Amino acid sequence: MPSSRDISRLLEKAGDFDKDERYMAVSDVCNLLSSTDSNSAALDSSLERRVCAAILQRLDDTSNDVQSVAVKCLAVLLVRVREESVMTICDKLCEMVIKGKEELRDVYGIGLKKLIQSVPNALGANVGARLVQRLLGGVQQDNEAGVKSECLECLECLLARFGGKAGMAAFHEQLISITLTQLTSKSASSTIFIKKKSTACIATLAVVVSDPLLFRLVETLIRQVKDGTVSEETNTIVKCICKISSKVGFRLGKQLPKILPLFMKFTNPASAESNENSDSEDENEDSSNTDKLNELRESCFSGFNSFVSRCPTEIQEFLPEIVKICLAWMKYDPNYSYDDSDDEGSDNDSDEEDYDDDYSDDGNDTGDDDSSWKVRAAAVGALVAVIDLLRSSPSLLWDAGVVDQLLSRFKEREENVRHSVILSFTQLIKNSISSAGVAVKRIKREDDMEEESKFDSPVFMLETLGRKTAGIIKNSEKQLKVKKGNEKSKTAALALLGEMCSSPNGLGDVAQIEAIMSTVALSLASTAPKSLKLDALMFLQTAFQCTNHPPSSIQPHIMPLLPLISNAVGEDWYKIIVEALRVLSTIPSLLVTAVDEDAMTDGPPPPPANVDIPNCANLLYSAIEPRLNENDIDQEIKETAIVAIGRVISTLGNHLPNEAVEKTLTTLTERMGNEITRASALKTLGSIASSPLKIDMSPVLEVATEEMTHFLRQHSRSLKMCVLETISAFVQSNNSKMNPKLFELILTEAAPLVTDADLQVSHLAISVSYDVLASSSDSVATIQQSTMPALLKLIASPLLQGLALSSATKFLEELSLKGSGVVSFEEILKSLHNIVDEETKAQALSNTSKCLAAVVAVASESQRNGVIKSLVGDIEGGSGTSRTVGLLTLGALGERVDLSSVDKLGEVLLAAFESDDDQTKSAASFALGHVSVRAVDCFLPIILSALEGGNKTYLVLSSLKELIVSHLANDLELDDSNMSKILPLLINYCSNEDEGVRSMVAECLGCFVTMNLNFIIPTLKGLASEKKQAMTEADNLTLWTVATSVKNALSSKSKNRDGLTEHLPVFLEFLESEDFPVRAATLLMINAAVHYQPQVILGCMKEVVMPKLLEFLELKSVRVIDLGPFKHKIDDALPLRKTSLAILDSALTQCPYILNISEVLLKLAAGFKDTENVVATHQLIIRFSQAYPAMVAQNVSLYIDSGLQKTLNKKFKESATAQDIEKINELIRSGLRVVIAFKQLETDKNFEAFFDANVTGKDNVRILYEELVGQ
C-alpha cells in the first residue's frame, strides 16, 4: 500500500515544469485515491489539504490534458476526504468560477459541476446551501455574461441533484426571483444565451419546488405577457412555460385554464386563415409574418404538444379548440400559392408534372427568409400529440374534419412538414382501424336522448374511410411519382398504403391498385435509394398478403413486378434480400385462384386468367435458387430462402421441371443436417410433402426420414415436434413409396415419446403411429411390441387429456380395425382392462373407459353386443372399480352409437344411483346422460320422469346436463318438442337453494341459448322481469340462475350468442339488485361478454355498466359473525370488487376506447388498501401504466398514499411461520412490481423521495427489488 511519502512525492511532481510529468503525477494520485485497497481514505488532515490544493491548482494548468485529469481526480477526491475539505473545495471552485481567469472559466465550471455530481448524497444539503448563495451572486453580476452563464449551468446541475433536499427549500423563492429577473432582463449581459440558460434553470427548479410556489411562478410568467404584445421577451417567457411543462408534467395541469387562453391568443385560427389568403405584398405582411411572430407561434405549438402529452386529463376540455388551431396553422403558408387541383378528389392529372416540380432535389424548397414552415411543422407536431392521446377513441378527430384536412396537406411543399403530415395521417388511420376492431352496435335506452356524434361508432368511421380510399390512394401515388428527392415522403406514403391494407376496402378497386403498383415499381428501380427499396418491398409483402381486396386485383401486376423483385434478391444489403425473398414467397398463393374444397381434392387448382403460370414459376425458382444454394450468407437469408422455395415448390411445383424439384429437395435435405437451418428445412419439407400437388418425395424420402428419426433422440422439444409433424406429412402423402423397414424405424423411435411428461409431443407421436398404421397393416406387429406398451402406460396416467387422449382413442380404433390378424379385438380389450385396478385414479378410469368405448364402437355388431352385455353385468353385479368402468364405458359408447336396443338399460342406470359409493353414482349420472345422446326418444323420458319424481335430483339433473352439453359439443340438434319438455323442469329448479343444482340448470339454459336463441330467450326475459319485481329470496336465486345462464351462453363458441345484443339490457338491470350474489353473477356475465364477444355489450358499456363498475370498486359491506370464541368478518361486496377489476382488465385489452381512463385510475386507488384485492389492483395498474403512462404518472402520489407505501412496509409478526413470511414477501414483491412500472414513468420528486425511503432505504425491500429487477 502506498504511504504518505509516496503521495507527497507525487504531489511534488504535480508541480514539475514538464507537462507529461504533471499529467502522470495527477493521474497516479487519482488512481491511488480510487483504488479500494489503498490508505487514501485515511489521509491525515495536513496531507488531505495538500492533495486538495495541488489538484485545484492543476485546474489552472496550461495543458488541457492535465486540466482534464485534474477534473477527473476531483470526482474521486470528493468521496475520500472529510466534509471540511469538501467544503473548502466547493468554496475554491466557486470562487474560481466567479473571479478566476476568463480563459479557464469553462474548466472551473466543469470542475464545479463534477463536484456537484460526485459529492456523497449525505453532504448534498450542506453543499447545496454552501454553493447556492455564491452562485446566485455570480448570476447577479452585471456586465459578466460568461460568469452568469457558468453560474446558471452550475445552478441547474445543483438543483437537479440536491434541489429537493430539505435544506434547499429555504432558497427556492430567492432562486425563482433571481432567475426570473435574468429571464426578463434587458441589460446588455442578458443575451439570448443567458435567457436560455435561465429557462433551463427555472424548469429544473420547477421540478423541486412546492405546488404553491410552482403556481406562483407560472402566474408570474403569465402576467409578464398578459397584454399579448409580441416581442422577444414574450417568446422567451412562452418557451419557459413550455420547458416547465416538459419538466413538471401533470403538475401544471391545474394551471392550464390560465395558460392555454394566452397561447391561443397568439395562435388565433383567424390570423392563419387571413394570412393564408393574403398576398405576400400586403401592407400587413411585415407585422403578421415576421420571424419573431413565427417563432412565438412555434413555441406556442410546442407548448400545446407538451400540455397534451403531459396533462392528458386536464387538457380534454380544450382538445376541440387545439385541434381547430392546429388545422388552421397547418395550412399557414403566406409565401406560396397552392394549386387547387392538387386537393383530394381532383380527377385532373394534367398537372402531375407540375406537382413533381413542386419539390426540389433536396426536398426543401423553402426560402432562407421564410420561417412559416416551422409554424406548420409545430402545428402538425401538436396535432400528432392529440392523435396519440385519442388513439383509443378518435371520433373527435373525425368530427373535426382532421382526416380531410390532413389529406389536403399532402401537397405541402416543405419536405419535413409533408413527411410529418403523412405520418400523422397514417397514425390516425391506424388508430381508427384499431378502434374499430370490435364492431359496436349501439343500444339506445328510452331515457337516452343525448345527441351523439355520427362517428361514435367505429364502424361508421371505417365506412367513411372506405369512401375516402380513392383520395388517399391518389395523394399517395403523387408522392411516389416525384422523380427526384422526396425520399422521406415516399417512405411515409408507402407506410400509409401498407396501413390502408388493414382497412375493410383494402387498397380500393382494380384501377386504384393498378395505379399503386405502377408507382411502387418506380421505388424498386435500380437507381432508387436502398432504404426506399426496402420500404417498397415491405409494402408489397403487406399488399400481397392482404385479404381485404381480391387476389384477382393483384395478379395482373405480378409479372411486371417480378423482375424488379428478383433483382432485389441479388442486392448486397441483407435486409433488402430478406424482404425480397419474403415478397417472392407470397406470390405463389396469389397465383392460385380460390376454388372450393371439392376441386382442391381433384388436383391442382386452375390458374388465374391472363397469368403465365409456368413462366412465373420458373422466374420465382430462378430468383430464389441461387440464394438457397449459397453457404456463406446471413442466417436470416438462408432461412427466408428455404421458406420461399418451399412455397414455390408446394404451390407451383407442377409447373417446374422435375430436375429442379429434385435438386431442391436434395438441397433441403442437406440443409436439414445443419443445426442452424434445420428447423426451417424440416418445416419446408413438411409443407412440400403435404402439398395438394402430391409432389414426389421419393428422391429424398428414405434418406430424409432416417435422418429425421435420429433427431427424435435429441432433447430439444421444439425440434421433436417439428420432426414428428414432418414425418407425419411424409407418411400421409408418400406412404406407397415407403418400405416396411422405414415404417418400423419410425414406430420404434416415436414410441419412447409417448409419455405423460409432454402431452403435446405424445399427441404428435401417437398421430405419427396412427398414420403408419393407416398406411401399412404390416406394421401391427411392431406397434404391438413398441407402441402399445407406451400407449397403455399413458392411458393409465391421470394426466392424460385433450389432444393426446383424442389421438389415443383414434389410434386404438384403427388398431382394432386393422390388427385382427396380429392383435385381436379381445386382446385390445383385455390390455385396457388390465391397466385398471382399485388404486387407479378417477381421471385414469375415465380415460380408459373412453378408449374402451372407441374400440367397441368400431367392432362388429356381435362383438359390440357381447361387450355391452358384459358391461351391464358388471354394473348390476359388480362393485368398486369394475362397476365404475362399466358405467363410464357405456356412457362414452352411448355418445358414439345408439344403445336404445339394450334391454332395461335405463332402469339399470337409475338403479346405480342408489349405490353407497359416490364415484359409482357420479359415473351412473354420466352414463345416463351420454347414452341419451344417440337415443333421445328412448332415454329422455326416463330422465324427465326421474326428475319429476324428486329423487336423486342432483344426479338426474347432472344426467340432463350431460345430455344437453353433449348435444352442443357434437353439433347435434335437440328439437323444439324435446326442449319444451325439458324447459319447465329446469325453470322449477332455478330457485333451488343448492348452488350446485342451480349451476347445472344455468349450464343447461346457456346451452339452450346457443342452440335455439329465439326459443329460450323469451322465457329468460320473462323470468327476469317477473322476479325482479317480487324480490324474495327465491326470486334472487332465480335471477342468479338467469344471469349465470347468459354468462354460460356468452362463454361458448357458438355464433348464436351474437343475437343476445338486443336482449342484453334486460339482464344488465340486475346490477340494480340489492342482492350481492345477483350483482356478482351479473358482473361475471358482463366479463364473459367483454372477454369473449365484446361487440355484444359495447353499446351498453358507457352508460349502463361503467358507472356501476366504478361504484363497485369502492363498495364494501362487512358483516360480523359471532362464532363464540372469536368473531369472523365477511365482506359481501368482495366478489363485486374482484369481478369489476377483471372486467376492467378485459376491457383494457378488448375495447379500451369505452373506458374513461382518468376516472378509472382515480377509482383504482381504493384497491391499494383493499387487502383481498391489492395484488389484482397492482397487476391492473401495471397494465395501465404501459398503455397510458402519462395518465398513470398523474396519480402516482395518490397510489402511494392510498396503500402502496403501507404494502412495502409490511412487517412480520414474531410468531410468523415460514408460510406467513413468504406470503408477506409475495405481497411486497407485488408492490415492488408496481414501483418498477412507476420507475419507467416521468414522476415527480415525491416518488423519488418515496423510493429512497421505502425501497433503497430498507434492506429487506431493497433485496427483493434487486431480485425483481434482475429477473
Automatic annotation (TrEMBL):
Q: Name one GO biological process term.
A: SCF complex assembly
**Does the record carry 4Fe-4S as a key word?**
no
Q: Print the keywords alphabetically.
A: Repeat, Ubl conjugation pathway
Q: Where is this region: Disordered?
A: 271-291, 338-371
- Regions of compositional bias (Acidic residues) in chain numbering: 276-288, 339-370
Supply the SUPFAM superfamilies for this chain: ARM repeat (SSF48371)
* Repeat as UniProt keyword: yes
Q: What stretch or stretches form a coiled coil here?
A: none
Outline the extent of the TATA-binding protein interacting (TIP20) domain.
1104-1245
Family under the similarity heading:
Belongs to the CAND family.
Q: Which PANTHER family match?
A: TIP120
- Specify the protein name: TATA-binding protein interacting (TIP20) domain-containing protein
Please tell me the species this chain comes from: Triparma verrucosa
